[in-house]
Amino acid sequence: MTSEALKAACLALAGSEETFPFNPETSVFKAGGKVFAISALGAVPLRVSLKCDPDLAVRLRAEHPAITGGWHLNKRHWNTVLIDGSVPQTLLLEMIEDSYDLIVAQLPRRQQLLLDWPGAGRPEGG
């Protein structure tokens, strides 16, 4: 996956935005003001840090050497993925979406509905 494809995958999620709170080189992708992905898109090798369910995070690290505990982040809840081709792109895309879902799940229901997030549930007839 290229840096352009990574950026596009993050920005394709409803309500996501790219911010630069740390420096101009580090993209921080947020939804509802909450961070779900961090990457220095110009870095070689390319890496991305993603929020992850703690049990799944441990399992992914055991199965993929390119997935490690979040660099400079809470390693219980964040993984950093080295994008070197060893992690299947479909898995990486799922990890991005899972990270987004974990963040959006913490938002108030009203914000979830504004994002048209499937996990918010809609009232009958709504």
UniProtKB/TrEMBL annotation:
Pfam families, alphabetized: YjbR
An MF annotation (GO) of this entry: DNA binding
Keywords, in A-Z order: DNA-binding
Protein name: MmcQ/YjbR family DNA-binding protein
Originating organism: Kitasatospora kazusensis
Taxonomic lineage of the native organism: Bacteria, Bacillati, Actinomycetota, Actinomycetes, Kitasatosporales
